[in-house]
Amino acid sequence: xxxxxxxxxxxxxxxxxxxxxxxxxxxxxxxxxxxxxxxxxxxxxxxxxxxxxxxxxxxxxxxxxxxxxxxxxxxxxxxxxxxxxxxxxxxxxxxxxxxxxxxxxxxxxxxxxxxxxxxxxxxxxxxxxxxxxxxxxxxxxxxxxxxxxxxxxxxxxxxxxxxxxxxxxxxxx
Length: 173
Known about the structure:
The protein has about 170 residues and is α+β, with helices and mostly antiparallel strands. It has a domain at about 50-165. About 45% of the residues lie in helices and about 15% in strands. The protein contains 5 helices and 3 strands, in the order H-H-H-H-E-E-H-E. It has helices spanning about 5-10, 30, 35-80, 85-105, 150-155, and strands spanning about 110-120, 130-140, 155-165. Helix 3 packs antiparallel against helix 4. The radius of gyration is 35 Å and the shape is rod-shaped.
């Protein structure tokens, strides 16, 4: 019969779960690694999670800019070909671009809008004429400070073009 652990320790005897003299104990008894797995998991998780969250934020800003310029160009071309006069067409297109960009949180002041017409560039509203509207904007990546002109380097240019045809039944009022 073997003595209990407590008596074996008092008597200096070896029990079945203590290593022989001169041998190192197995596992965490000597190294003291108990509880470090959670710390390693949190550290590695943060090192991987922070860049991933920034990537998602940056892609969301770029995608919002892409949706904004595409919608702005499409709406501006649509309202342009439906207008009665050139002055009215330009006002409607400017308003459409402003609203479309504002819907996606992009400033209309930063946008550049170009209107081109075919077959005659000086007269856009002709029957079966084509009106192309190009909207350009530069989207600033999130969380980039304005120091040392880093915000200029961290801008992504986005451009969209939409073309609409003037109705064959169009007539000047």
